[in-house]
Design brief:
This protein has helices at 7-18, 33-36, 46-59, 69-84, 92-112, 153-157, 168-177, 181-184, 200-207, 211-214, 288-293, and strands at 24-29, 62-67, 117-118, 124-128, 131-135, 159-160, 218-221, 227-231, 254-259, 264-268, 274-285, 296-300, 308-315, 318-328, 335-340, 343-352. With 353 residues, the protein is an alpha+beta fold.
């Protein structure tokens, strides 16, 4: 049982224990405050480890602390740095889930003789036509399948999601009913664990060698390619950004494109961020042949965006989607996650609109 010390993983452990599963708790140490200039809180921190140990003690289950700091820095943090320094906006939770939370946790499960692993994610597992798929959670506001699309069928066969059929409100009530009143009232962070303040620029400046040389002033361009101002270095900007541009045009301007090689940032109007198509690479699909026969899908281009109707065409590990209605703010580096009938059928990394 992956335990963060928070309400979701604790209630998940409670539910499994009530179902008479034999549990072994596991908590990851993934970063140090010195790595991030952040407070010692959040998933993977020393504080979360202590909270998880206490929850395991109260539940009466064995508990292990796993030091994944080196693997987390090499796989998750470094990917985050590399993507931003190439002008893309990454999603570190997607990388962490596939390489750290499942990749390394399954190894420990084998060492301990555990048949399955469980987490407090809001998701379900659906068996369909001989395949195991991620299924969307009952609580659509908390559904976390977007972050889990890289899990393989082999991963899913050994995974339990105890919270998938419940809403967050129900989970809070379960905690309160079982005597964990304080835990039921605890607020939760929506931020990246190693960036609790959301200041990725400060993180890059500390962790990128010669950052000041690589992040230097360049040209703002309009959609025609004309120079319209100066920016403070391309890593300081993300697609769709409107605030913090430090230039005035009389009407709002948004970042519509970033060219890391040329150190240029293109600004346009809001409608310039609308598009009917998107291309993703490094794609994996559970049943590609089914998508050839049934290319009508729903797709999400970011976690907080609604799934939109689209038609998909596959070419090797690349997918091209044409949306029925324009979508806003397609961002290279983010995940494209594809759904059919409430099931995640695959996904990839957005390369262009």
């Amino acid at each position: 049982m992956a335990m963060s010390g928070g309400i979701d993983s604790t209630v998940a452990a409670m539910l499994l224990k009530e179902q008479e599963h034999e549990l072994v708790g596991a908590t990851f140490r993934t970063f140090d405050p010195d790595d991030t200039d952040c407070c010692e809180q959040g998933c993977g921190s020393e504080d979360s480890v202590l909270q998880a140990q206490e929850m395991a003690r109260q539940l009466g289950i064995e508990h292990h602390v796993l030091d994944f700091r080196q693997a987390f820095r090499e796989n998750v943090m470094q990917n985050f740095i590399d993507e931003y320094m190439h002008g893309r906006t990454p999603n570190p939770c997607v990388v962490c889930n596939s390489t750290i939370k499942w990749g390394l946790l399954l190894r420990l499960a084998d060492e301990l003789g555990c048949e399955k692993i469980a987490t407090g994610h809001y998701a379900r597992i659906i068996e369909h036509n001989g395949h195991h798929f991620l299924g969307t959670a009952a609580d659509t506001q908390k559904d976390q399948t977007y972050f889990l699309w890289k899990l393989t069928e082999a991963d899913l066969r050994r995974t339990l999601f105890p919270l998938g059929d419940f809403t967050k409100t129900q989970i809070r009530q379960m905690a309160a009913d079982r005597g964990f009143q304080t835990l039921s009232q605890k607020t939760e962070s929506q931020d990246i664990c190693f960036l609790p303040t959301g200041d990725y620029r400060q993180f890059l400046s500390k962790n990128v060698p010669d950052f000041s040389e690589k992040c230097h002033p360049g040209d703002f361009l309009n959609p025609k390619g004309d120079v319209i101002g100066r920016h403070e270095g391309f890593p300081n900007y993300t697609i769709g950004q409107r605030k913090g541009l430090k230039v005035a045009f009389g009407s709002p301007r948004y970042v519509t494109a970033i060219d890391a090689e040329q150190n240029t940032v293109t600004l346009g109007e809001r409608d310039d961020l609308l598009t009917n198509s998107v291309t993703a690479s490094c794609c994996t699909f559970t049943s590609p042949e089914s998508l050839v026969q049934h290319p009508q899908v729903l797709a999400r281009i970011r976690y907080r965006s609604a799934a939109a109707k689209a038609t998909i065409v596959l070419a090797g590990d690349t997918a091209e989607l044409t949306f029925a209605e324009p979508v806003w703010g397609v961002t290279p580096g983010q995940s494209l996650v594809v759904y059919q009938d409430g099931r995640v059928v695959g996904g990839g990394i957005i390369v262009k609109k």
